[in-house]
Amino acid sequence: MSEEGIVKKFCYMNRKAPYGTIYALESLEVVLIAAAFDQDISLVFADDGVYQLTKNQDTNGIGMKNFSKTYSALGDYDIKKIYVEKESLDERGLTADDLQALVYEDEDDDWAEKNSLFVVDRAELSSIIDSQDIVLSF
After folding, report:
1. What integer pLDDT is reported at residue 3 of this predicted model?
2. What domains appear along the chain, each with residue ranges and CATH number?
3. Which stretches of the chain score pLDDT less than 70?
4. N-terminal to C-terminal alpha carbon distance within the chain
5. How do beta strands 81-85 and 40-45 pair?
C-alpha cells in the first residue's frame, strides 16, 4: 500500500446509489478499514452516489439493512474530507440541506465539532482527484 514512512493520499469515489448493489456498502467498509491504518482519506460522492448521504433513508420496503447512519461515524475515524459534487446534487433535485450533517471533533481546537462535508463543483472536484496518489471507484 505505502512505503514505510510515506503516507499515500487515497480517494474513494462513490458513484452508485446506496441500495440495489453492494458497491456503496463495500466502499464504506473499505474506507473504515483503511482509516484504521491511518491513511490520508478523501471520500467523493458523485452521480447517484450522492444519494448515499441523504437524510432519513428508509429501507423497510426493500428488505435491506439501512447502513446510512454509519456515515456519521466517519469523523471518529479521522475522516475529515468528504466531497459531494454540486452538479450531481443539482441534476437530482437535491441540495446540501438534503444531506446528513457529517462532522469530526478537532482535538487541536478543544474538541470543537467541525464540518467534514463539502459541496464542490466539478472543476474543484477534478483538482481534488488529481492531487490524490490512489483513486478507487465504487
Report:
1. 56
2. 9-137 (3.40.1260.10)
3. 1-5
4. 18
5. parallel
